[in-house]
What does this fold into?
Amino acid sequence: MAQSGTSNRKSSKPASEPRLGIFWLVKGSLLLDSVPVSECEKYGDHLNYPRGHNRVWEDWQQIGKVPVESEYEEYARGRVMCDTEAKQFSLFADKCILKRKDLIAAIKKELRLPKQTSLGADPHYRCFKCLHGNADDEE
It folds into this structure.
């Protein structure tokens, strides 16, 4: 179900290290790109995946992983961050993803996140269907 992408960096980190990343739900498939927490960048009191949705999408369009004629914000998407002060992982996503327990479980498993990872909606991650009131349609 989940297709992963990772940074080109080679890592000697343990396989169990949590990862931070970004993801989409594209035509029923979960697509992720992530790096180990130890390779993430500081963003205030948070650690964050170092690449943006737009950049990853453009790279994936070039290799045919996502539809060439589409924009990265068309599909439901999200991001996982880590609050270093609270030692809390947070998964922010479009409601099309948040309402599906199977997708949340797949993201948590792929990124090796703890059960206590918080979930939340974020206006940055609203797909076209949600923006235009068609969120009940299948992805």
